[in-house]
Design brief:
Number of strands: 2
Structural class: alpha+beta
Number of helices: 3
Shape: elongated
Strand content: 15-25%
Distance between the termini: 14 Å
Strand order of the largest sheet: 1-2
Helix content: 40-55%
Length: 79
C-alpha cells in the first residue's frame, strides 16, 4: 500500500465532506455540488448521452436523479 497516496486520498475525502458540511443555505449548495462533480460524483442529478435504442444513428441525452448514497457493496468490492 502506498501510505502517502492514502493520506492524500483521505485529505481529499475530508475536503469534500467539509464542503458538504459547510452547506448552510440554498446559496451554498451549488458550490458543494460542483466540488463533488469535479471528482466524478453525481449528486442530485446525472447527465448522460447514449445511442437511441430505436434509431442507432441518433443519440439521446438523459437527465436522471443522482446517487444520494454509497454504491452497492457488491459492485465495488475488489477483494
Amino acid at each position: 500500500m502506498n501510505a502517502p497516496g492514502l493520506r492524500s486520498s483521505r485529505a481529499e475525502l475530508q475536503g469534500l465532506l467539509g464542503a458538504v458540511n459547510a452547506v448552510t443555505s440554498v446559496q451554498d449548495l451549488p458550490r458543494a455540488v460542483a466540488k463533488l462533480w469535479e471528482v466524478g460524483a453525481e449528486p442530485l442529478f446525472s447527465f448522460n448521452v447514449g445511442v437511441d435504442p430505436g434509431n442507432a444513428r441518433r443519440h439521446l441525452a438523459t437527465l436522471d436523479q443522482g446517487e444520494l448514497s454509497l454504491p452497492d457493496r457488491g459492485t465495488t468490492r475488489t477483494c
